[in-house]
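Question: Send over one sample?
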Amino acid sequence: MLFSTIATCILALTTSALGQKMQFCYPPPGTTVTAGQPFTISLNEANSLTGWTDIGVAIGMRSCPSGNCIQASVDDGIGFAPFLQIDTSFQATDHGPGGPENCNLYGNVTVTLPEGTSGEVQLAVAHYYIIGASDIPGIDVSSILLNVV
């Protein structure tokens, strides 16, 4: 019992310390997008001396009819039906200087929000990865508020 408690704590601390912390590079918060029309999101990973492997991203959407969306977290989930998109081909690459602001190590994903969606929405991304020589699993969640017409 004590061993499993200690092991769980070490795993949690290691994953937190080594976490990749994904963030949106593009579009900027508050951007207006059109429902039913594809648009590109750019997702940046923090660079690390420790090697990692991207497993994929899951993208979800929440409507914010009263304009009070909160930052997404692992515990809150990333959105509700009718929209959930899984992309297992996601791979961030080093683009060097000249990419979107503060984004050198990023990947692009094309997203199409369902027709009939309108108003303020929270677009959230869960990034799944394994890190280090021991292949420790990890997850990041990041979100952005967009206006949909």
